[in-house]
Structure formats: C-alpha cells, structure tokens
Write a structure and sequence with these properties.
There is one protein chain. By secondary structure, the chain is α/β, with parallel strands linked by helices. Helix content is about 40%, strand content about 15%. It contains twelve helices and nine strands. It has an eight-stranded parallel β-barrel with strand order 1-2-3-4-5-6-8-9, surrounded by five helices. Strand 5, helix 9 and strand 6 form a beta-alpha-beta unit. The protein is globular and about 55 Å long. The structure holds (3S,4R)-3-hydroxy-2-oxopiperidin-4-yl beta-D-xylopyranoside (XIL). It catalyses: Endohydrolysis of (1->4)-beta-D-xylosidic linkages in xylans. GO terms for molecular function: endo-1,4-beta-xylanase activity. This is Beta-xylanase. Its EC number is 3.2.1.8.
Length: about 325
C-alpha cells in the first residue's frame, strides 16, 4: 500500500493526530488515520471536564474507545491533559455548599483524578501532557493566575507531576504550552521548567503546541525554541501542530473583523512553503524532537473553524475537506 506520513518519517519521529471517538466509527477518517499516522492524542476525551464530570463519577467511554483503537492497530497514544484551567468540571474547586475548597482538599482531588486517569491507561499511554498552559502570555508574573495556582500555590505543578509519575513510572511526562516562540514567554516557560528539573521533579519533556500560521514562526525562532528547551536535558515534542491561513496567533482576534475566508491558490502555496520550512527544522533536530502531532485530521473540521472567531473557516492541515492530500502534504514528504 502507498506510503503515509508515518512511513516517510519512520526514521525521525512518530507523527500523531488529535482525534475524537466518532472518528473510530467513521470509515474514511479511521482509514486516513491508519494510513498516515503512528500516534494519536484525544482532542478532548481525557480532559478533566469530559472524563471526570462529577466528583465520584468518571466517563471512560470516549477515552477507552480511542485507547482501544490505538492498541488494536499499534498506534502510540499521548495523553492530554491532566491539569489545565480550561474544560474543568463544575465541582472541582468548590464544596457542596458552593464554597471554595482548601489547598488540602484540592490537592487530594487532583491526586485522586491523576491517579485514576493515568492508572487506568498505565502502559498504554506513553506520554502525558501533565500541566497545560501554566504560563501567562503578558504581564510580569511567571504563573498564570488559575484556580490551581490561587488555591494550592506554585507547587501545584510539582504535585501534578509526582502524582502522574507514581501512577505510571514509565510514562514520559510533559509540560505543554503555546506561544513558545515569543521570547518573553519562552524564557518564562524555560524558568518554570528549570525550577521543576532542579528540584528533581519527574518531568521529561516540553511540548510546543505549534498553533502557528503562515506568518509564524520563523525558522530561527523555531530553531531557538527547540534548542533552548532541549538544553534542559529534556525531550521536545510538537504536540498540537496546525498552520492557520489567518493572522498571527496573538493578533488573530483583531484581524478577524470579517468572518469570510477562502483558501486561494496563493494561500495554498504559502502554506505548503511554511510547512516545508517547519519540517526541515524538525528533521534537523531529530535528536531533540521525539514527536510531531497535528491538531485534527483534515480541513473538513478543525478547532480553528471556531477559534478565535466562531464559524470562520480555516484550512490549517495537510488534508483537504475531502480527505485528499494538499500541496502542504507533498511539501512535508518530499525531502
Ligand atoms: C481544543 C479542542 O480542539 C476543542 O475541540 C475544544 O473545544 C477546546 O480545546 N490548546 C490545547 C488544546 O491544549 O487542548 C485545545 O483543544 C487547543 C488549544
């Protein structure tokens, strides 16, 4: 059968894709996953809100379906994510009267959650995004002022990594974030991760989400990010890659006055060139980079169709709305 992304990159790193459980039931989508990818990340199914909707109730169905499909077909799974301020269940930070819980109660809940989720998939999930997006984009603070930070304090990060490590000592544990090419944020993330490393916290990797656009990052910025984080003695992965045709990530809201969006030939070419550049840098750093995962399967449906502007179409991936390879696909596999 024809070669897929995973075959072209077999000597480099696994190529992953973010999935939802409906794809496992969808003929063309599951076929495309199997032909092209060697790793999967549940797009939402393992987040705290979906998987742990009430304090004493877990919803394993969707996550189980994804892990089972991966096991059946020999794909790796990246777990995403154990501690994040978004997609949080309503019960997490309050008691039954609605009053905010204490540090001790929240730590106990975090431990219970992480032990249950990581423990259930022990040996089946090779890498976990343990803490997601703990560093703010602007301001002067090192820590994003989330409820985890406010209630527990800065050691919520090390606790989360310790709980995950206890539940599956063989899993690779990642800190994951976006906007990692912005030099101010990059240095903050570096400091935060370095603190954890210096303390002996079980952290093994840094995930660069890679929500980029045809305008960003430059090869040099990307090169610097990978080199900087690998300098901590950690592995690096690109965990949520897409290349938006719209404005730069941090400017997208302002540039979004018109919701109209057309994938012109010119954009097709620019996007292919950008993807070619990104993968050239990835290949150069194959000793530091241990995975590249795309955030969604094809342009038929991307989270960017509803972010940051609801209903504005984007075309950020390697496959078009009919699951056919785009110019960007050729650019990535012809090297
Ligand atoms: C996104 C999903 O793709 C959407 O379906 C969901 O509505 C919101 O979250 N950074 C992350 C991912 O770490 O978990 C986010 O995924 C995209 C940004």
């Amino acid at each position: 059968s024809a070669k897929g992304l995973k075959d072209y990159y077999a000597a480099y790193f696994p190529i992953g894709v973010a999935v939802n459980p409906r794809m496992m039931q969808n003929g063309p989508e599951s076929a495309l996953i199997l032909a092209q990818f060697s790793s999967m990340t549940p797009e939402n199914a393992m987040k705290m809100g979906p998987i742990h909707p009430e304090e004493n109730r877990y919803n394993w169905k969707d996550a189980d379906a994804i892990v089972q499909f991966a096991q059946q077909h020999g794909l790796k799974v990246r777990g995403h994510t154990l501690c994040w301020h978004n997609q949080i269940p309503p019960w997490l930070f309050v008691d039954s009267t609605g009053k905010q819980v204490s540090r001790d109660v929240l730590l106990a809940r975090l431990k219970q959650h992480i032990s249950a989720v990581v423990g259930r998939y022990k040996g089946k999930i090779y890498a976990w995004d343990v803490v997601n997006e703990a560093v703010p984009d602007g301001g002067d603070a090192l820590y994003r002022p989330t409820k985890f930070y406010e209630i527990i304090g800065e050691d919520y990060l090390e606790k989360a990594f310790q709980y995950a490590h206890e539940a599956d000592p063989a899993a690779l544990l990642f800190y994951n974030d976006y906007n990692t090419e912005n030099t101010v944020k990059r240095e903050r993330i570096y400091q935060l991760v370095k603190k954890l490393k210096d303390k002996g916290v079980p952290i093994h990797g840094v995930g660069l989400q890679g929500h980029w656009s045809i305008h960003e990052p430059t090869a040099q910025q990307l090169d610097e990010s990978i080199t900087r984080f690998a300098g901590l003695g950690l592995t690096v992965q690109i965990t949520e890659l897409d290349v938006s045709i719209h404005a730069k990530q941090h400017e997208r809201q302002e540039a979004a006055a018109t919701a109209k969006s057309e994938f012109t030939n010119e954009l097709n070419d620019r996007q292919a060139a950008h993807y070619a550049m990104l993968f050239k840098v990835f290949r150069k750093h194959r000793d530091k980079l241990s995975g590249v995962t795309f955030w969604n399967l094809s342009d038929k449906s991307s989270w960017l169709d509803n972010f940051p502007v609801k209903g504005r179409k984007d075309y950020p991936l390697l496959f078009d709305q009919n699951y056919q390879p785009k110019k960007a696909y050729s650019a990535v596999v012809n090297f």
